[in-house]
Amino acid sequence: MPFYRTHHCNAIRSTDAGATVTIAGWVDSPRDHGGVIFIDLRDREGITQVVFRPEENPEAAHAAHALRTEDVIQVTGRVAPRLPGTENPKLATGEVELVASELHILNKSEPLPFPLDADISNEDVRLTHRYLDLRRPAMLRNMKLRHKAIQAVRNYMDAQGFLEIETPVLAKSTPEGAREFLVPSRVMPGQFYALSQSPQQYKQLLMVAGLDRYFQIARCFRDEDPRSDRIIELTQIDVEMSFVDVEGIIALSEGLFQAIFQAALGVELETPFPRLTWRQAMDRFGSDKPDPSLGMEFVDLGDVFKESAFKVFRGALDAGGVVKAFNAKGFASVTTGQINDLTALAQKHGAKGLAYIKVENGTWKSPIVKFFTETEKKSLTERLKIEEGDLILFGADTWATVCHVLGRIRLRVAELTGRKPAANQFTCLWITEFPLLEYSAEDRKWNAVHHPFTRPMAEDVPLLYAGDPFDENALACVRAEAYDIVINGMEIGGGSIRIHERDLQQKIFHVLGISEERQQILFPHLLRAFAHGAPPHGGIAFGVDRLMMLLCGTENIRDTVAFPKNNRGQDLMVGSPSEPEPHQLRELSLSVRKRE
Ligand code: ASP
Fold first, then answer.
1. Ligand 1 in contact with 495 (CB < 6 A)?
2. N or C: which end of the chain has fewer CB within 10 A?
3. Which residue's alpha carbon is at the smallest distance from atom 6 of ligand 1?
4. Burial of 596 (0-12, 13-18, 19+ CB in 10 A)
5. Domain for residue 237, yes or no?
């Protein structure tokens, strides 16, 4: 028998009764019923009940007594209907059992470090024994879903005329935002590769090469502190197309997401996905990755309070700022402790305080209501649809501070009140027209919001050339041909139409403070390529691991990956990272000096 078995453990049915079959797998739960041994035998596909009867084969029955959970065995036997009343409707094989005639123990298992059917809160234990953890049904389901999603990507992209092309993992440093992992070269002592944080430049060069439509399931490496939704070794569906505009990329991506959700979950996503410009998203939800389904949209109250006696609101408006509020519907039950925490959160993000109104027993309870006129109160009631039991939270400051602060408060309120998307509910959204640049007060320079290869919107290009060398106010207004896809408040992907002209690219480098000399060190290939017939092009990349969090319904990104690193970047199973052997360092012309 070339494959140890004739069937897997989810194959036999009542129609097979009488057939002789061989199955192999793991002992799930051995039970001794007065000499008759029952075993649930498990493999990747499911479970089959095996029964060892002493009268059928005393030798096998005797050996079966010694079986323990997670032993690996091979059993040959006869398929028989279960006795009436003993069927198990929860199992696809539940109407039958295998009456064993032959047993081979292929591998014994020692007692497990943790039971497979219990919830293990210590993730390090799970990660140390990941090969056991992956046997758990929830993890097995995640691995299968991931496979299905990736196959759907390959099928869809192939059908759309994309070529799957691999690009180097040992790459060159790029200023795309993340800290990079460096790999020393043995052959060129003192020189280092950077592990690719994304195939960005390679995919653009593939377009210059005329390959037209590229995709890759690409491994990317970013040396950032891991979080519940961020890992250092991530996987992207990386895409680039020539002769395409924003609409083209969006249409392709929506089709791709429909295909993935259909294949993995049988869920039909409705297209086109709604769109918000970055400004609208910030204005209404205080986030560039909002989940509108949580409600609590911001309302602008500038006109209501422009003559207000309440100095905080009036002062903000007079200074050119804004007053906004949102209704945390039904949350008048907020405790003083929670209000204090929310206020501290607002202050941490730059607000001076947090004004609020609780509506309880028909009265507005708030330290600020005494400053409001009847007309102001009436307008508030109408605009914010205020009712008994509501909590209203305000922000008054510059536009940017108010949006940012209320955005944080809104998310915290959602957490406190348990607002979250229902299972299998997916709110998909495009965010467009991001700012091209943002000023970093810390570095005292302009940085690219997306990356330096992103195309400015045509109508904003003149702003880049206003002033000499540039006009700071104008730079802040330049919008990018960039887009992010957001699902349930999580950024799942993003991309842009690219610059394909050498002059414009150099202008952007210049604005970003990358001198001509540095440009020749960092990007000579790109600048040369743009001088040899570069087509207009654009692309996008989707985070597979985050997408899988949605498809698997988990809040832990590591549950979507077979062998993830823990939150300190360690693979506890194999013990990496680890110290190199002295001869390895010698070969690399390196010596290690540990920080005290
Ligand atoms: N390379 C970008 C990223 O990894 C995506 C893109 O612009 O296509 O975020």
1. yes
2. C
3. 495
4. exposed
5. yes
